[in-house]
Amino acid sequence: MTGLRFGQPAPDFALPSTGGGEVRLSGFRGTADVVLVFYCYDFGNI
Prior knowledge:
Elements: E1 14-16, E2 22-24
Antiparallel strand pairs: 1-2
């Protein structure tokens, strides 16, 4: 896999839903604007 460039569609992925089941990024395609934010958080320093 190569890196993405600004404006390119993100590849599809799924995450667990808080209500059970899973949520897929592709389920939002064409219906809503989605902003993906990735950050590093160190739980060891809490």
